[in-house]
Amino acid sequence: xxxxxxxxxxxxxxxxxxxxxxxxxxxxxxxxxxxxxxxxxxxxxxxxxxxxxxxxxxxxxxxxxxxxxxxxxxxxxxxxxxxxxxxxxxxxxxxxxxxxxxxxxxxxxxxxxxxxxxxxxxxxxxxxx
Length: 129
Prior knowledge:
- The chain has one helix spanning 6-9; strands at residues 15-17, 21-27, 36-42, 47-50, 56-63, 66-70, 76-79, 84-87, 93-97, 101-108.
- The protein is mainly β.
- Catalyzes the circularization of gamma-N-acetyl-alpha,gamma-diaminobutyric acid (ADABA) to ectoine (1,4,5,6-tetrahydro-2-methyl-4-pyrimidine carboxylic acid), which is an excellent osmoprotectant.
- Its EC number is 4.2.1.108.
């Protein structure tokens, strides 16, 4: 059994901060589950272009307001508490935060926690982190 708190992640190497986001990586590849779980804050007024070519990402919004845009089609969906969106076809997307957005994210395959976005907004394939 794994039991972990958000507080135990804060201030560690699993707590990654960028200009537009803060990712608290609660479960990672080393936990051996096949997926990773992240509690992420996207900062108000920011826009991120992301495209996870090597991972499927499921996102569940628990706080805040914003929108997600499919780059290829331009289709836009509002985001707010209780909304889930899944990048099941590795879609390039824009994530816009009108207010701070708090999102629970699940990545398959699991992230190691050491990944950094490349120029396309992707994380490297597993084993290439």
